[in-house]
User: Fold this.
Amino acid sequence: MNTKAYAAPSATENLAPFAFDRRTVGAKDVQIEIEYCGVCHSDIHIARNEWGGSVYPVVPGHEIIGRVAKVGEGVAGFKAGDLVGVGCLVDSCHHCPACEDDLEQYCEGGMVFTYGSPDPVMGGMTYGGYSEKIVVDEQFVLHVSEKLDTKAVAPLLCAGITTYSPLRQWQVKAGDKVGIIGLGGLGHMGVKLAAAMGAHVVMITTSPEKGADAKRLGAHEVLVSRDEAQMAAHANSFDFLLNTIPVAHDVNPYIDLMKRDTTMVIVGALALLPDVNGVGLIMKRKRIAGSLIGGIRETQEMLDFCAEHNIVSDVEMIDIQDINDAYDRVVKADVKYRFVIDMKTLKD
Amino acid sequence: MNTKAYAAPSATENLAPFAFDRRTVGAKDVQIEIEYCGVCHSDIHIARNEWGGSVYPVVPGHEIIGRVAKVGEGVAGFKAGDLVGVGCLVDSCHHCPACEDDLEQYCEGGMVFTYGSPDPVMGGMTYGGYSEKIVVDEQFVLHVSEKLDTKAVAPLLCAGITTYSPLRQWQVKAGDKVGIIGLGGLGHMGVKLAAAMGAHVVMITTSPEKGADAKRLGAHEVLVSRDEAQMAAHANSFDFLLNTIPVAHDVNPYIDLMKRDTTMVIVGALALLPDVNGVGLIMKRKRIAGSLIGGIRETQEMLDFCAEHNIVSDVEMIDIQDINDAYDRVVKADVKYRFVIDMKTLKD
Assistant:
């Protein structure tokens, strides 16, 4: 296991020296030639060791689209040439209560993330989708429809499922007034998915200038969270809030927007939420909950839902050589709304 | 409306000058001769204007037990001599979605609290149970079983329903591992009620010396929250947490105790909860919710449940003349577990 940690490595330094074809194709494995890989903010956190615990070299990437190159002799669900996806998970224990509930993302035996997890098959750490190929157990490979714009499907594997799963868990339905808080990679998928579910979608943003784009994406209304009068006019009116803000922030103005007995789901803020007002929760029996990506079964359901409703991510294509600039732009929220790497540029 | 605010009034000063027999018995009204009234911490907050907005004189008291003295000609459900209770509410709008759902405590038209609310019938403010009599619309009067120790029933009207309602809302059932956080007026009722529902009850307290008493009340285990090893041993194991801590506090150690997809309900902390860890919520899809007392239908259900299971509060009886000392002892958490005023002492 290579545990050498670079002092302040760039993503390119970490990518450069590695061979990506190390895992032979086992009986239940699918080997995928990667065509596209989305750039998620977590890629940056882990490449830059911002969460601590990164083991270098890191090969990021968990929004993977490609075609099956080879399958093991025991693989039943895939054949060479199939268009497939791999998301944030490549393995789990298969027998804990979470796995039995098709919620591998909460595996109690230890889920294996697509990159940066101890690799139970090969030893060392798992390597992700900024790569030519990946070999994955077929249970963690997703079918992808040929009818969508393939490169724009990649971000569905993380941004799509992260927003789809809580909308389903909390049973958002036609006519519900749903607020999507924050318009970035996650938020723009939240708007598209909630609108496709028939909800009345309100984009809640600090930035009035994002309004027009939010409506283009499918939002029916825009609510500027810095405008106290607008916020007061929407008080106690939302059936559901999906909070995609990726950093610590004051959640109380959003709690005030919620109807009695409704939920705000936090999907972005892996952070301390300061001073959550107990009064806001108690007085109308409101709830704050968390949600982490989604299980494999639900990820397939989300991909099928997107194919049916013609939903993809808004993407900006980059070459792998531009990854460090792309990272800097993601940090500045300067992307509409997801970078996707064209993986054939890895051979340039 | 008397809005004269005393500088730093004692409860007795506020009680002294008032006539309590001002409301005539309307067609739908029940006049109750009050026998006992429990002392809730909110009585102190409002008597001392600690939440702001108190309108003096204040007559506190919303854990009221008494006998019907007189009923209006349109009253069908009560007759003179009946043993009855009045809790935190004496009226609501009757037609909003909350009222239609039997959740008058969340009335959108404005619920009328038993004391300190604008009084829609008499004008001025409502006056509570530290009194000889009270006149209440029959829809807000509860039937009380004769089989229980009457004076110990009083605290069920607030402490009982506040803990019963979330246990029912979140469907606590036999065999669930339920943690009751904090052993005071609310917590001791939470232990008794959750145990009667068949749960495996764990008293979670900062004070190891409360352990024996918690077990006497019905707890199966005691978990000392300051003991990190004990807390770690219970990590991710609870099906439900009822958090009765009445002040701001760090909720993150409790979040760590919860299983995936479970809820901690805050019933006491009308306060800012500092630095709630989003990671704790996201990683196992956990939830923090609030809950406020209960509706009238559910309060009756709770009283019937307590009669069936022989549940009352642990009380310490006081004379009304001792109310200020009792307040000071409540503030110091020096009561096991609820003071109840013997209202005949008001005539002494």
In short: The mean pLDDT of chain B is 92. The interface with chain A takes residues 97-98, 103, 106, 108, 169, 236, 248, 260, 263, 266-267, 269-292 of chain B (CB under 8 Å).
